[in-house]
């Protein structure tokens, strides 16, 4: 078995999850007829305290559909310079929605400073795009946005008449790290996404949560962007299983990340911004060593995206024992290349 620390997207559905998938009742979800999709959407709404939720194939599409539902052509969203829905989604909102991103630099803790957000809001003037939306990401680079910040951002967007969207691909990691229910985080945004296919261990799927009216609009955009699936209950069953069984255990991944960080630091590696809050950590190494480490680890059955800054993620398919092995191998590599 390979030990794969490249991402938490690599998780494999367990035997129990596969059984749930195989046994799912299904129907045509474009007609709203899939009982398992409906159950998943209802469960996401219940857990988040939002009125409604929509099941989508990917987190990228969930963010795109959210942006298309919030902003019209010629409008803009304010977003972090390194946010997934600015930098890593192929410019979808601009390409497909004629929606302009207004990126700003985040603070080191991952928050977007509200004075900078305020300065980026355009006055109502024919020269400017209309600022509609603030988009945050939680967790971002493994960091949890402080609750107090979420509260202030929410207040801020009410005062400035902006909508607030959260890319919550890893929002359950944030909730578990803060030891609060999802609702506590969801109350401070209009809409947010959840990835089922990362730490939660489902093979496919994301959710977009919001008001009834918003989700109805989002459903049209989902159809237009080709995300209306048919007997999708097979996939939704995995998501339902994940929400029931794989949320609380994220703490294990967080503990493993902290443990790994300590061990790698002990063998002399430089941790970028030590103090892993969730399941992500970053290691800095020389470009020469980084180029050798990746192929060397692969030969030993360990997959990492080795680079000058290497991002490592813990997840449901990596045990403490696996991590122990990685530390021993890494130490051997450093000794061989000293
Ligand atoms: C993974 C991720 C997404 C969406 O990814 P998909 O691969 O399209 O599901 C969106 N936002 C963040 C922050 C992510 O980490």
Automatic annotation (TrEMBL):
Family statement drawn from the similarity comment of this UniProt entry: Belongs to the threonine aldolase family.
Keyword Membrane: no
Gene Ontology MF annotations: lyase activity
PANTHER family: L-THREONINE ALDOLASE, L-THREONINE ALDOLASE-RELATED
Cofactor(s) for this UniProt protein: pyridoxal 5'-phosphate
Highest taxon of source: Bacteria
Name of protein: Low-specificity L-threonine aldolase
Keywords, sorted A to Z: Lyase, Pyridoxal phosphate
Subunit text: Homotetramer.
Keyword Lyase: yes
InterPro entries: ArAA_b-elim_lyase/Thr_aldolase, Low_specificity_L-TA-like, PyrdxlP-dep_Trfase, PyrdxlP-dep_Trfase_major, PyrdxlP-dep_Trfase_small
Domain Aromatic amino acid beta-eliminating lyase/threonine aldolase: 4-285
